[in-house]
Design goal:
345 residues; alpha/beta; Rossmann fold; six-stranded parallel sheet; four-stranded parallel sheet; 13 helices; elongated
């Protein structure tokens, strides 16, 4: 059954504004405050309102196609994962003879005026850009694709990874190795990605009558990518009953911090605690013991994001597309079997 399209009147009723206020907010009219514009855009994005501006400000077809790639300073500095993906995106556009200019999304800096000055054919938003800027770009009128952004609650052209299944596979692997008491290390409130990874772990463990402990208060995560493991809290978790024998980390950076924290406690991986990460960054193979982790297909995702945006540029009225890429467990040396590995059915 086809769902009825959301209208301006629906948004107005849901938000308590007049239809004219909602319409002007979506069209970035000078008479509407930035606070109201942000509120309207976010709500419209989350309920799936299809916005078709009468004057998008998008340049007419040109010989040379150009795109703006929006990233955060933290993404650019992150040599473990994000910078590698950004390079993949840049190369994918260049191979298609598309010129690229990068825009840095800073917390207090207006982003849309910069995009309008550049007048690209489309916009690719990558990484940990805040929801307000995502909504602003989604309703700017420029063809846009969102790649690996922090929130799952947007109905726009978006590509991400199957975070839930990644968490499920990580925990299921540990269960098949005989581990029934598992820690999840990661702040579920940090992003929807971390929350979904936790939920996958939770459901896998519950299905096998295991015990999952969320060690949310043992990990501090920041937008800069920095991770802190609170060693005293970790020690308490490792000695409480039932004592965990393995940990699933929300990303590889947390896993590396866990290695260091365990060493500070006089413990080792995997003899005292088996560890599974998430991302499969290059350092996973160099650390000792090499880290078992969930591989995110970053190169394939970059290629698909570029293809999606160019298709949207060719036809701005294409239906909204959501692509969720599969994950893969990469088995290395950081998990110690407690029993003969269970056979998969």
């Amino acid at each position: 059954m086809q769902t009825r399209k959301i209208t301006i009147k629906d948004l107005a009723r849901q938000l308590g504004y007049s239809p004219s206020t909602v319409s002007r907010a979506l069209r970035d009219h000078y008479s509407i405050s930035e606070a109201v514009k942000t509120k309207v855009r976010l709500h419209a994005l989350e309920v799936g309102y299809a916005f078709q501006p009468t004057d998008a400000g998008v340049p007419a077809r040109q010989t040379q196609c150009s795109v703006s790639v929006v990233v955060t300073p933290e993404n650019l500095r992150d040599e473990l994962l994000f910078r590698t993906v950004i390079c993949e995106i840049e190369q994918a556009f260049y191979r298609r003879n598309v010129s690229v200019h990068f825009l840095i999304a800073r917390p207090q800096a207006a982003l849309l005026p910069q995009i309008k000055r550049l007048r690209p054919n489309g916009v690719l938003v990558f990484g940990m850009v805040d929801r307000e800027k995502i909504a602003e770009i989604a309703y700017s009128g420029f063809p846009a694709v969102f790649f690996g952004t922090m929130t799952q609650r947007i109905r726009a052209n978006r590509i991400t990874v199957n975070n839930y299944m990644g968490g499920f596979e990580a925990a299921d692997y540990l269960l098949r190795q005989g581990h029934t008491r598992i820690l999840f290390l990661g702040d579920r409130d940090f992003s929807d990605d971390v929350r979904l990874r936790y939920e996958g772990c939770r459901d896998a463990v519950a299905g096998k009558n295991g015990c999952l402990t969320s060690a949310q208060d043992a990990v501090a995560m920041s937008m800069t990518g920095a991770v802190e493991i609170r060693v005293q809290r970790l020690q308490a978790l490792l000695t409480c009953a039932p004592k965990p024998t393995a940990a699933v980390c929300a990303n590889d950076r947390i896993a590396f911090a866990l290695y260091r924290a365990l060493a500070a406690c006089g413990k080792t991986v995997p003899d005292d605690l088996s560890v599974v990460g998430f991302d499969n960054v290059a350092q996973c193979e160099r650390i000792t013991p090499a880290l078992t982790t969930i591989r995110i297909p970053t190169a394939e995702m970059a290629q698909e994001a570029v293809r999606m945006l160019l298709a949207q540029i060719q036809d701005p009225h294409k239906a909204t597309v959501f692509v969720q890429m599969d994950i893969q467990l990469v088995e290395r040396d950081s998990v110690r079997p407690l029993a003969a590995p269970a056979k998969e059915e």
